[in-house]
Amino acid sequence: MSASGLSVGVDEIAVPARRKRRLSPMVYFYIAIAAVLVVSLVRLLTGAGNLTSSGTVAAALTAAVPIALAGLGGLWSERAGVINIGLEGMMVLGTWGAGFAGYQWGPWAGVLLGVALGAVGGLIHAVATVTFGVDHIISGVAITLVAPGATLFLAKLYFTDAPGGGQKQSPPIDDVAHVSVPGLSSLLGGIEDKGWFFVSDLAGLLRGLTTDVSLLTLLAAVLFVVTGYVLWRTPFGLRLRSCGESPPAAESLGVNVYKYKYAAITMSGALAGLGGAILAVASSQFRDGQTGGRGYIGLASMIFGNWRPGGVAAGAGLFGYTDAMQLRGEDAVHALLLLLGIGLLVLAVVQVRAKRYAVAGVATVLGAAFILWFVASDQVPPELVGATPYVVTLLVLSLAAQRLRVPKWIGQTYRRGQGG
Fold this sequence. Notes:
CATH architecture of the domain at 52-314: Orthogonal Bundle
Distance between the termini: 20 Å
Number of strands: 2
Number of helices: 17
Low-confidence stretches: 1-18
Strand order of the largest sheet: 1-2
Structural class: mainly alpha
Strand content: under 5%
CATH class of the domain at 52-314: Mainly Alpha
Helix content: over 70%
Shape: globular
C-alpha cells in the first residue's frame, strides 16, 4: 500500500466520523478576556488584591508546571491506548533523580537523570502492559506503590551521610537560571500598582508570566507546543493515535503497534519524570512525599482537557492558581468562594445551552451555595485552606468535563494479529 493510502487509512481510524465544530482561536481569546474581567470585578468587590497580583501568577505558574507535564505524559500514553495511572510513581522517580544528580553535578544533570528515571518507569509499564498484557490499572498502581519505597530506600542509602542531606531528603540543589523580558517588569509593575479595573489586573498577569521565569518553565511550554505539533501534524503522531483508536486496523495498514505504544509510554514516563525533577529543583532539594498526589491531579487535568495539550494546560493552570491562592492566606481563599460561585453559575448557563440540564442544575445549586457562603462569612475555616486546590479542581473538573472523547481502544490489551 502506498504512503498516501496509509495516511488516509490511519486518518479514518484516528478521527471520529462526526466531528464537532471547534472553537476558533479568537473565541478562546475572548473567553480569556472575559475571565480576566470577572476576576478583576471580584478583586474590586472583595478588596483581595492577591487575586491578580504578579506574585500570585508567578506562584501559580510554578505550581502548575509539574502537574501539566504529568498530564502531558498521560496524554501521550492514553492517545496510544494505554492508561497510565502510574504517573505519580514516575514523578517520584524524577524527584529522586533530580536530588541525586542535582547536588553532585548541578540542576541540569538532575533534570536529565529525573527524565531518565521517569522514562525507565514508563518502560516498565510498557513491558507489563504491551508485552505481557498486564491490566493497565494494576501495572500503574504497582509502579506508584513501589516508587516511593524504592526512592526512600535510595535516599537513606545515598543522602544520610551527605552534607545537608538526611534519610528523607537530598542535600540542597541549585536552581536553574531565571529570565525576564528586559524593561517590561518595571513598566507593568507601575501599572499593576495603580489598582485600575482590568488594566492593572492584566498588567499583573503579564508581569507574572514574563518576570523571573525559570528556564524549566519555558522548556515545559515548548514541550506542549511540540506535543501538539507531533501528535496532530505528523505521520508519526497520526499512527500513534491510531494505536489508541483501532490497533487491528492500524496494523492492517502497516503500523507497528507495539513500537508506537512503547514509544508513547516511555515518553509519558519521561515527561512525568521531568515534572518531578522540576518539582525538586524548584524547591531546592528532593524530599520524601514531595509529589503530594500531583500525578493524579495531572491525570485529572488530562481528562478535563479531553486528551488535548491545551486542555491539559488549562486544567493544570486551575490547580496552580488555587494552590497559589491558598498560600496567600484565608482572605484570598474567602474571595475565591465568590469567584468560584460566579464561575459555577457561568458553567450552568453553558450546560443549559448544551441541554445538559442535570449538570446545569447541580452547578447552579453549588454556585449559589458558594456565593451565599461568601456573603454570610468573613473567612473560611483554616482546615479548608490547605485543601482548597484539591476541592476546587476536582469540583470544576467533575462538572465541566461532560463532552469527553476517549480514545476508543484505551485500557484494552492488544495482541499482534488480533481482529478488530
